[in-house]
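Sequence in, structure out. Go.
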Amino acid sequence: MTLQRPTTKPANPNFSSGPCAKRPGWSVSALSGGLYGRSHRAPVGVKRIVDVIEKSKSILGMPADWKLALVPASDTGAMEMAMWSLLGARGVDALGWEVFGKTWITDITKQLKLADVRTFEAPFGEIVDLSKVDTDRDVVFTWNGTTSGVKVPNADWIKPDRKGLMICDATSAVFAMDMPWDKLDVVTWSWQKVLGGEAAHGMLALSPRAVERLESYTPAWPMPKLFRLTKGGKLFDEPFEGKTINTPSMLAVEDCLDALVWAEKLGGLPALLKRTQANLAAVEKWIEKTDWAEFLPSSAAIRSNTSICFKVVDPWLAGLDDDAQAKVIKAAEKLLDKEGIAFEVANHRDAPPSFRIWGGATVETADIEAVLPWVDWAYRSVKAEQAAKAA
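Output:
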C-alpha cells in the first residue's frame, strides 16, 4: 500500500524542546543593534542586562519586591545556585517525575548529601501525590516536566503560610503558564525555551522569603564563586542589578531583548498563554483522530502546553522492547528531518520512547497543524518498511 504524502509543509520546521524555535519573523538582522565589542560592565552593557531583567519581570507580572538576576549555565546553573545556597536549613521534600526533577533529587541526596530528605518520584506520564508534600519543609520541583510533558496542575497544595521555601524549576513554564508568585519562593528558567532565545544563560528569581533565608543561613559546605549569592552576610546585590557574576554573551542578551520586545508587542503574557494553549489544542484534536498515538501524560489536568509528548499505542510497536521502539521513533524523526519537515521531534533519550512537539509561544499553531499529518505519514512509512522487511 502506498501512503499518501501530506501536501502542506510547516513554514518553520523547528520543533525542538530546547533550544526552541525563534519568534516568528526572526532573522539575524534583529541583533544588528546589539552591544558588541564592549564590556558588559560598562554602563551601556549593564543597562542592556537590566532591560532584560525589568522586561521579564513586567511581562511575567512578578511582584516588585522579588529579585531577578541573569546567571551562568542556563536553567541548570540557576537551579544549582539555589539549591547549594538555600538548602540545608530545614528538611527537604524533593519531587521528580521526569529527567530534570530526578536530577535535582540526585544532587540533593548524593552531592549535597542532606540528612533530612524525603523523595517523591513518579514514572513518566504521572505526577506524585502532591497532597503528601509538606510545604513546611523546603520543596524542590519542576513546574513543567520537559521530558514527560507533565505539568503541575495548580498550586493548591502549597500553603500560603508555609514555613519552607518552594524552589521551582520553571524553565518550560514561564511565559507559557500563569505562575502563582505568591506560592513560590525561587523560580528559575532559561531563555532557550518559551522565548526561543540562545542557550547558556539562566534566570534566577528570589522572593523576599528566599532573600531572608540567604541572609540568615550559611551552608556548611564550601561555595564556588559562581554560586555565591551573599556577601558579608547580606544579599550580593550586583547580579540583581545587571552586574553579572561572569561574562555573558551580549549577542544572546540582545536576542533575549528582541524576544521580550516581540512578546510585549504581541500583548504580553495573556497573548503568550493564548498561543501555547492553541498549540496544545491543535495536538489534542489530532490525537483524537489518530489511532496509534496517545498523550504520555495520564490525564488532561497535568498535560503540558509547551513540551507536548505523545506515545505510540499501536499494538505492533507495543510488542517490541524499548530499544526497538526508540529506533522506530528515531527512524520516523530521521525521515522528517530528511524531508525538511520537522527537526528534533523524538523525545529525550532518557524518556520512554515517544514523540515530543514543542508548543511554546514562538511556534505558530499553523505549523503545529501542518506537521502532525507528516508525523503520521512518517510513522506509518517506517512501520510499513519494517513490516516489508520482516515478511
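Check: The chain has two domains: 28-263, 268-390. The first strand starts at residue 67 and ends at 72.
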